[in-house]
Amino acid sequence: MSMTLSNAFVRNFLGNAPTWYKLTIVGFLMLNPLVFYFGGAHGPVIAGWLLLAEFIFTLIMALKCYPLQPGGLLAVEAVIIGLTSAESVYAETVNAFPVILLLIFMVAGIYFMKELLLFSFTKILLNVRSQSLLSLLICMTTALLSAFLDALTVLAVVITVGAGFYQVFHRFASGKGQEVEHDISHDAEVHELHRSDLDQFRGFLRGLMMHASVGTALGGVCTQVGEPQNLLIADQMEWNFKEFFVHVAPVSMPVLVAGLLTCVLVDQLKWFGYGTSLPQSVRTILEEDDRAQAAQRTARDHAVLIVQAVGAVLLVIALGFHIAEVGLIGLMIIVFITAMSGVTDEHRLGKAFEAALPFTALLVVFFAVVAVIHDQHLFEPIVAWVLQYEGKTQVALFYAANGLLSAISDNVFVATIYITEIKAAFLEGAISREQFDALAVAVNTGTNIPSVATPNGQAAFLFLLTSALAPLIRLSYGRMVWMALPYTIVMTTVGLLAVIYLL
To answer: Are 494 and 258 in contact (CB under 8 A)?
Structure first.
């Protein structure tokens, strides 16, 4: 009985994560106290660097296990052994309260606009015949929406549309009607006649999903609410919505143009897995399904779409004039849309908050690691070295350092570390206000632009990779990195040149 119980504890620890991953985390937890207590005078600093590397490891391995649990265990241990204190963690969390409000309320607010977004994307996909124009429109639309809305929610809607289209055609190709249960993850029943069309459809959806994902990054870098770290940076810099846009525009606008041109180019040349067109047979089936759905839409459904459209206009106006903290604007949108749409059941309201809360919890764990960095002064030598340089060289180094770290870990985490360090340098008089502004832009663009290189850096990319749609359209980690490569090269290079010559 004791052996069975012990085996159960072992199997339950970190769930379905691989055994090697579980052993690695246990090794981390055993190593840190030994280094802290027996590492001599430099023990706490060495243990702090180890903790930072270990936490980045959990972010890189996010596909093996969501980082909240292993990262959280490391953070709790850091408090227990004295690398930081609960008070320091709380102080870091309070400083980032606007970001937490954004994640809780803005993400949920956009959830209640899902029908409008689904309607809009469906019309774009079915009414645009040119493959290159469709890809450009999808990239531009997700960029525009991500500048004002939450990028994860925007991409979630695109994934929902793609998955819905895939299900419709897979059912047809398998000879199944709507009333029959059907597993779209298996192709055994797909008729031989439709297999080539299904493979081509997968290629079409892969390209579209990647264009949409990059679009969220292109738009997300531009505004205060585009990405969680943007709001954190804006809060530290005391920039409102307009000020943030103006400060970042010398870098974000050239990158946006370069990204959109790359979208057209890779589609036209059919490079890196792009350029696969939608088969006509698939388009015909999808159009018939859309007409059937439209015929079933009631007056009440139309009223909901109108309310959500009004909510979208109110959101843009409220953000543009900065009438309140961004999270409170999100709460206002929730209240307006749900009240006018009749969504008053607590269970239906609760579903809107499910997507944001795990990441919100993970963000607080980020702040525990940031507290360790502050209390052990880990980044002071690095920042001091960079600050030895002046002018454009200093700004370029910050952009490059943030970009490299964001490509392998998480951009919110990286931005949190660097913006607090350069603010400390500014408050100590080490840099001027003008240089402080330029460095803040370098941190923002550095964490947003090069991070498209891997799913680890961009939450939207990771969300797509871990979605139910990814295996259906054969979108693996390696294929995603390969398809992101032309965007990574062009956007990162243009961003660096803009940081050097336009800031």
So the answer is: yes
CA dihedral over 439, 325, 108, 350, signed as positive or negative: positive
CA 371-375-377 angle, to 5 degrees, is 110
Model pLDDT, residue 182: 65
Summarised one tens digit per residue, pLDDT across range 353-362 is 876 788 788 8
pLDDT tens digits along 246-301: 999 999 999 999 999 999 999 999 999 999 998 888 888 888 888 888 888 899 88
Q: Cα dist. 96→22, 225, 389 in Å?
A: 31, 14, 29
For CA atoms 398, 403, 405, 409, give the dihedral sign: positive
Residue stretches of the chain with pLDDT short of 70: 1-3, 150, 153, 177-183, 188, 355, 409-410, 456
**Predicted local distance difference test score (pLDDT) of residue 357:** 82
Q: Which amino acid is at 194?
A: H
List of residues 6+ apart from 218 with CB closer than 8 A? 139, 143, 146, 255, 256, 259, 260, 491
With a CB cutoff of 8 Å and minimum separation 6, the contacts of 122 are 161, 290
Q: Tell me the one-letter amino acid at 127.
A: N
3-state SS assignment for residue 105: helix
One-letter amino acid identity for 286? L
Residue 444's identity, in one-letter code, is N
**Token pair for residue 105?**
């309320």
The SS3 of residue 468 is: coil
Write out 144-177 in H/E/C secondary structure. Answer: HHHHHCCHHHHHHHHHHHHHHHHHHHHHHHCCCC
The answer to whether 100 and 93 have CB atoms below 8 angstroms apart is yes
Determine the Cα–Cα distance for residues 187 and 96; give it in Å rounded to an integer. 47
Virtual torsion, Cα 66, 72, 77, 80, nearest 10 deg: -170
What kind and span of H or E run contains 392?
A: helix 391-408
Residue with tokens 């090069």: 450
Q: What region does 343 belong to: left with phi over 0, alpha with psi -120 to 50, or beta? A: beta
In which residue are the tokens 């018939």 written?
A: 288
Sign of CA dihedral 334, 335, 340, 342: positive
How much is the pLDDT for 417? 79
Token pair for 127: 């009414």
Q: Which of 446, 458, 411 is nearest to 151 (CA)?
A: 458
Closest CA to 211 of 176, 278, 261: 261
d(CA 230, CA 329): 16
This model's pTM is above 0.70: yes
What is each CA distance from 165 to 43, 159, 303, 450, 469, in whole angstroms? 56, 10, 25, 31, 11
Burial 159-169 (b: 16+ CB within 10 A, else e): bbbbbebbbbb
How many other CB atoms sit within 10 Å of the CB of residue 329?
Answer: 23
Cα angle 256, 259, 265; round to 5: 145
